Structures are given as C-alpha cells and as structure tokens.
C-alpha cells in the first residue's frame, strides 16, 4: 500500500509540475522558462524537478501534451462545428505566445528522430489530421466542403496553421484566426462552385505538418 501511495503522489506531483510549467511558459516564454524557474515555481530543486522527467526536452514535450489535453477539453472541434472549434483554439493560442513559441521551436528540433519530442509531433499531427479529415468528409458529404481528398485538405489547413504561427511570432499584429477564416471561406466557395477537384490537386503535394 505504501508503494502504491508513493506512486500516486508521484503522479500528482508530476501533474502539478506540468500545470505550473504551462503557466510559466505562457507568461514568460521559452527563454524565461528555465528548469530553475519551473523548479522554483513548484518548490523543488532542479535535480528534484528532473527526478520526474528524463531531461529538459522531455519536460517541455510533456508541457505540450498537457496543453493539448486542456485545449481538447475546452474546445474540441466536431463535424458540426469544425471551423468554430478550430478557430477557438487558434484564438486561445494568440493569448499564450510562450506556448506557441515552445511548440514552434520544439517542432524544428523534433525533426531529429532521436529527439524526445519526435514521436509526440508525429502522433499529434496524424491524430489531428485523422480527426479533421473525418470532419471534412462529413461536411463534404452534405456539400459544405470541397469534394477533394479530405486528408489533403486537412494537410493544407495544418500547414497554413503552423506557418501562420511562425509569421505571428515574428509579427504579432497578424490575425491568425482571421486569416484562417479566409481559408475556410475559400474552401466553402470551392464546395459551392464544384471545384473540389482543383483543391485536391493543390493539396496532393502539400507538405506534412
């Protein structure tokens, strides 16, 4: 029983660390969110903090997982509100620049298969694309989205979102949600004029994100 209690306390402490670390990164950005700063926020030494994570990179990866978990609870897109749910997440991201910066920086580093975040980004991208593809297919079936390959269209939306985040980090005056609304309006227009085939062709060569 003592071992089980100790394990439960460890899980609870790890969750506390991730919750506080989210706040620190959102408020202070990547540069301000050192292991020391995060450790101080939860009353631990740096060594004590890293007892719960294998490395700083793993800690930051788990911070992003926690962010995804909270975003999913707060605003999960579905077939009936794909655009609304997606844009709510994007608008929220504009309020937490530190987390957007962490995501963008880690995404580049994770291109190395040896990086602790590599599998996270692959799995996250595939999961989001599958969910979005299913929603797009449902919308397409009732004439509210182009008739092209749903996965290709989902890749276009992912690529646009990731690219806009990088542009926004350089120029915070960019309206990410407003720009994506324009993209969704173009997709709706393509559905209305029957040009879904053209959308498919454009998407077939889109880079994965």
UniProtKB/TrEMBL annotation:
Residues 34-53 bind DNA. It comes from the Bacteria. Residues 11-71 form the HTH tetR-type domain. Signal peptide: none annotated. It holds the Pfam family TetR_N. Keywords: DNA-binding, Repressor, Transcription, Transcription regulation. GO terms for molecular function: DNA binding. PANTHER family: HTH-TYPE TRANSCRIPTIONAL REPRESSOR NEMR, TRANSCRIPTIONAL REGULATORY PROTEIN. This is TetR family transcriptional regulator. It comes from Microbacterium telephonicum.
């Amino acid at each position: 029983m003592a071992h089980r209690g100790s394990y439960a306390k460890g899980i609870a402490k790890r969750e506390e660390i991730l919750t506080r670390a989210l706040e620190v990164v959102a408020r202070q950005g990547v540069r301000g969110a050192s292991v020391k700063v995060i450790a101080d926020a939860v009353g631990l030494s740096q060594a004590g903090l890293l007892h719960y994570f294998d490395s700083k990179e793993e800690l930051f990866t788990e911070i992003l997982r926690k962010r995804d978990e909270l975003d999913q609870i707060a605003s999960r897109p579905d077939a009936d509100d794909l655009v609304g749910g997606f844009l709510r997440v994007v608008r929220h991201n504009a309020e937490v620049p530190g987390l957007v910066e962490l995501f963008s920086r880690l995404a580049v580093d994770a291109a190395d298969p040896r990086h602790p975040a590599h599998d996270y980004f692959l799995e996250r991208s595939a999961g989001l694309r599958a969910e979005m593809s299913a929603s797009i297919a449902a919308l397409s079936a009732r004439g509210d989205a182009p008739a092209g390959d749903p996965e290709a269209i989902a890749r276009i939306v992912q690529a646009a979102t990731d690219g806009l985040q990088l542009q926004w980090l350089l120029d915070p005056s960019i309206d990410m949600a407003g720009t994506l609304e324009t993209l969704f309006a173009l997709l709706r227009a393509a559905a209305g004029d029957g040009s879904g085939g053209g959308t498919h062709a454009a998407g077939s060569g889109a880079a994965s994100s």
